[in-house]
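Q&A log
Question type: sequence-to-structure
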Amino acid sequence: MSELFEPTIVVFLCNWYYHAAVDSLASVPPNVLPVRVLCSGLVSPEMILRTFRIGVDGVLVLGCSAGDCHYVSSGYHVATRAPLVRDLVDYVSIHPGRLRLDRVSLEEPLKFAQVMQEFVEAVRALGPIGAVLASSGDQ
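Response status: OK
Response body:
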């Protein structure tokens, strides 16, 4: 892939994590689009698929670490749902590497930046999603 390709990444962040994360976004490329949701545990597989269908190259869902969740167990739902959602994305011919579901504590801004950078690099290596969506038809 061309070194000029910069993937468009949507990051779903819980309401409680959003403000702290946005402060850390200064070190993240401008092609990373944060989306605040009430809780990352509420990000459904349908939301993820719709995000890909509009041409976003990668989707990152960040949930709270165990014990940090304001809704007690919703961060846990992100982690337990991950294998199912990856299988679903793969089923519709989208490389599972274009999706990452992870948990990061509010107390770990460096880990947040690291997760962001790793994901951007991984999606960059996969190239633009446009060709993938065009070849997969209207599923």
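Response note: The radius of gyration is 14 Å.
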